[in-house]
Fold this sequence. Notes:
The protein is an alpha+beta fold. It is globular and about 80 Å long. Helix 3 crosses helix 6 and helix 6 runs parallel beside helix 8. The strands form three sheets. A four-stranded mixed β-sheet has the order 1-4-5-8. It has a four-stranded antiparallel β-sheet with strand order 2-3-7-6, covered by helices on one side. It folds into three domains: 109 residues, Butyryl-Coa Dehydrogenase, subunit A, domain 1; 108 residues, Butyryl-CoA Dehydrogenase, subunit A, domain 2; 147 residues, Butyryl-CoA Dehydrogenase, subunit A, domain 3 (Up-down Bundle). It has ten helices and ten strands. Helices cover 51% and strands 15% of the residues. The two termini are 21 Å apart. The relative contact order is 0.12.
Amino acid sequence: MVDFTLTDEQKALREMAHDFAEKEMRPVAWEYDVDGTWPQEILNKAWELGLMNNHIPEEYGGVGASYLEGCLIEEELAWGCSGIATSIGANGLAGAPVLVGGSEETKRKYLGMLTESPKLASFCLTEPNAGSDVSGMRTTAVRKGDKYVLNGSKCFITNGGYADWFTVYAKTDKDAGHRGISAFVVEKDDTVTVDKKEDKMGQRASNTATITFNDTEVPAENMLGEENKGFKLAMMTLDRTRPGVAAMATGISRAAFEMATEYSKERIQFGVPIAMHQAIQFMIADMATKVHMSRLGTWNSAVLLDQGARNTLESSHAKRFAADSAMEVTTDAVQVFGGYGFIKEYKVEKLMRDAKIMQLYEGTSQIQRLVIARETLLPRRVEEPAAA
């Protein structure tokens, strides 16, 4: 049975995250969006409050928050600004493979780096020719003695220009497709270059870069899990992080819904607030339902993880529905604002631009549908527990 009753501590955590979003993020969100400003000062404050790295267990210096608690934080921060929230939360994506597949020494070293000071890590999977088709990656890792030598480029890497270390997926068997991929922790050095900072449509306060590895030497002990088992590790990672993306999408939807609701009460047309017109009422009602159901799906997928259950299907349900809903809700919010919604002076247009990425990263909405179809049509005979 799934119980969504929040404890007093969880309510306080959500309130703290909301207060941070309201006071530290929202006042600068639209300014940072215009300039693409890197929010280092805000990241430092989030780190000090424990809003960063909340996924890291206490034995490695983190706060040991549950997956549900992480989603509570993610929704509130994305309500404030999803671009800044992405920068704050990206360590969770990079750190998840370390938690799942890293040795005890690797966990203490690299997760400890993130908790000892406000350092950043990046998750490096996507390549120019390998997006949804991960097996098409061309980055290679060749064993030479007690090291691997990495060569290749990764694109669309969140926080890539500021990361101190990277979780990198590379081919250790070039002829084996997805069965020839391995994962490594790679420290930033002179052989790791930032080739391009992307100029994005939305989430402009987050850094997105192309990272190239040029004969980068990595100690063999920095491999995560077994050789050629990196694809499975990546999929296990995404099961754990997709609820967080769904929570962020919910935060964007909620922000747009609140703005549209408030505006509809103030805007007068035909002698009454537009909220009195049934056409607007139906739009607001649909927004409210989508926000509510997005949150329920998100919490369900997170609680399953907290219970040690496999959540592949539920995480794809949550991510797909919340991401698509965010695009729909923000588009409708702009519509409620009418022509003013299309003007940058009114902040709702930023939410529409920010929402689009929710349908793209950590598996597109189409990939989520493939996962859902597979899990529905070909269900696992034995319910596999989630690995630690």
